[in-house]
Design brief:
By secondary structure, the chain is an alpha/beta fold. Helices cover 38% and strands 16% of the residues. Helix 11 crosses helix 12.
């Protein structure tokens, strides 16, 4: 048999769940024995607590706690820019999943020893380490992590079923790159202070602070951490053996919530994550990084947090060795166009270019590029002469690119979809001597001091290919092949100059990968 009990979180928390199981067992035992259950009488009901809390929120006592939190969170960076696998949606769906990981016993024992040496609790040590992980993932030094607290500060509330849990925003500044043991002391101080001001409900704090709301982000806190002591979920039912079942609810209230569960013989990590943002493999990698970080901390807690290891051995080898095997053999002193010419000599009749209904073989493409290269040579194109290409993506564009390289020049890419201001900047900044375009795009071309070549108005054939084209271009692998401009994220686009050797090496490498 499976007994499923569903209680809305607004009416219960983990502590209440333990109370409920204990009382359920007592009631079942009394029922089966035909005797009244001996439940302890409650001093108050949850409704009494609610009345007290409402009264407290309207009293002067709240102002002291509110003043602390306003001072503590003044000027805080309220958004964590976590590296996500998917773009953050404008509206959170709260869909989530769980990934579990067990820490080795040796690491757990070493963490407990470190905590005792530094006069801290295991919770504080793990929280400090989690803040280091967030810092290393985001490079943000102002780190706020939400910490849930039981909220049962009065003895009369310990036996009640209801929601008492509250969220504390524990803030630390990591900008000085402190040694871990110093950060641990700061986290200890921040935690103790937060716990001494835990009576202010989190929703009341948000109401008072009024942080700027950003679509897709929860206000103030986006990641949570908690350490759960070993909880006895056993239900003692006469004549029955009952075992609790772990259920993944498929939800996530925050971007990330790290739960450290203390077992009798180990420490389990459970990372709840938003499936809108992260893939399972990424979350598993985060847990691996957290374990590596903890191992580095117990090995030497005097290390600065930026120097602590974070990559597991396998991931470090993949990053530094496997993904860095980029050596390829490629022809020295060969240009991009010469690679094409060699291919055209081998397979002249094979189809080389398809654009809609238009098709060219290698021979046809090579010959048409030769004719245009002759024309460009006559216009003065020589080694590294920059020729702007303002064409739609069609047959003429490919012919033009090849022709520029054959003539010895370097092309400058200009997308007709670019804003007029960007096009004008590229023309001026690149000092393009010639602009290759087509008749339909002339009205969109900014003024230019370079010669204009309308490629779709040139004769399709000529009596012969100019003899000057037969003379090998005095180019080498260090000559400029093309210039491509950045997106302009800094406010000013920058031209990136690519030499033939760069492009040829990339082509040869791509052949091995794709």
């Amino acid at each position: 048999h499976v007994l499923t009990l569903v209680i809305h979180h607004i009416a219960s928390d983990l502590w209440a769940w333990v109370v409920l199981l204990r009382e359920f067992g007592a009631l079942y035992a009394g029922f089966t024995a035909g005797k009244p259950a001996a439940l302890r009488a409650l001093a108050i009901q949850y409704a009494d607590y609610a009345v007290w809390e409402r009264s407290w929120l309207g009293s002067p006592a709240i102002e002291k706690q509110l003043a602390y939190w306003k001072q503590k969170l003044a000027g805080a960076s309220t958004l964590l820019d976590l590296p996500t696998d998917h773009p953050r949606p404008a509206a959170m769906s709260f869909r989530g999943a769980l990934v579990r990981h067990s820490l080795p016993a040796a690491v757990v024992d070493a963490l407990k020893q470190l905590s005792r040496r530094e006069d801290a609790t295991l919770f504080m040590t793990l929280l400090a380490a989690f803040k280091v992980l967030i810092f290393r993932l985001t490079q943000q030094s102002d780190v706020i992590v939400g910490v849930p607290t039981a909220g049962r500060t009065h003895p009369q509330t310990e036996g009640l079923i209801g929601l008492f849990v509250n969220t504390l925003a524990v803030r630390n500044d990591l900008s000085d790159d402190p040694a871990f043991h110093l950060l641990l002391h700061d986290v200890k101080t921040a935690t103790v202070e937060a716990l001494s001001h835990q009576d202010l409900p989190f929703d009341k704090l948000i109401e008072e602070l009024r942080p700027a709301r950003t679509p897709g982000y929860l206000p103030l806190v986006q990641v949570m951490f908690t350490l759960q002591a070993a909880v006895n979920h056993d239900v003692h039912l006469p004549g029955l053996s009952a075992t609790p079942l772990d259920v993944d609810p498929g939800t996530a209230r925050f971007d990330l919530t790290l739960v450290a569960e203390q077992k009798t013989d180990r420490l389990d990590l459970v990372l709840e994550y938003s499936t809108d943002l992260f893939e399972p493999a990424t979350v598993r990698r985060m847990l691996g990084q957290f374990q590596t970080l903890l191992e580095g901390i117990v090995a030497d807690s005097r290390q600065r947090i930026s120097q602590l290891p974070i990559l597991p051995a396998a991931e470090r080898h993949q990053l530094l060795v496997e993904w860095n095997r980029t050596h390829v053999d490629f022809p020295i002193d060969s240009g991009l166009h010469q690679l094409f010419e060699a291919q055209a000599a081998l397979y002249p009749q094979r189809e080389a270019l398809v654009a809609g209904s238009r098709r060219l073989t290698y021979r046809e493409l090579n010959e048409r590029a030769d004719r245009l290269a002759c024309h460009l040579r006559k216009l003065g194109v020589a080694r590294e002469t920059r020729v702007a290409v303002f064409l739609t993506r069609d047959v003429e564009m490919v012919i033009t690119l090849l022709a520029i390289l054959k003539a010895g020049g370097a092309y400058v890419a200009m997308d007709p979809a670019y804003p007029l201001e960007r096009l004008a900047f590229i023309l001026q900044d690149s000092c393009a001597a010639i602009v290759a375009t087509q008749r339909s795009l002339l009205p969109a071309l900014p003024p230019s001091s370079g010669k204009i070549v309308v490629v779709d108005e040139l004769p399709a054939s000529s009596r012969d290919v100019d003899s000057m084209l037969r003379v090998p271009t005095a180019a080498n692998d260090r000559d400029l092949a093309y210039v491509i401009y950045t997106s302009g994220s800094t406010g000013r686009p920058k031209g990136v100059a690519i030499e033939h050797r760069n492009a040829v090496a990339f082509v040869r490498w791509a052949e091995t990968v794709f």
